[in-house]
Specification:
Helix content is 43%, strand content 20%. The protein is an alpha+beta fold. The protein has one domain.
């Protein structure tokens, strides 16, 4: 899952100005969530929320589209140097 988090985060950073979203296609989704898994959409949405994203769109057999969760206070807080 760490690899998937990194992929989504990189794509959002690279494409944020143009598209503002990251599409993860079925081939990659199946590595983490088998297509026959029960409550798959809910599990993908939970994964997104846990990592500071939001599941904006999901179509089984096609893709999941993630956007940055702008309501997350933890992500919006800047990291200041100590001292």
């Amino acid at each position: 899952m760490k690899i998937l988090v990194g992929l989504i985060r990189r794509q959002l950073q690279l494409e944020a100005n143009d598209l503002g979203h990251c599409a993860v296609y079925e081939k990659e989704l199946q590595r983490v969530w088998p297509i026959t898994e029960e409550n798959r959409k809910a599990k993908i949405a939970q994964f997104a929320e846990k990592h500071g994203f939001r599941l904006a769109y999901y179509k089984q057999g096609l893709c999941a589209i993630f956007v940055e969760d702008t309501t997350s206070h933890e992500l919006a807080r800047p990291i200041l140097p100590s001292g």
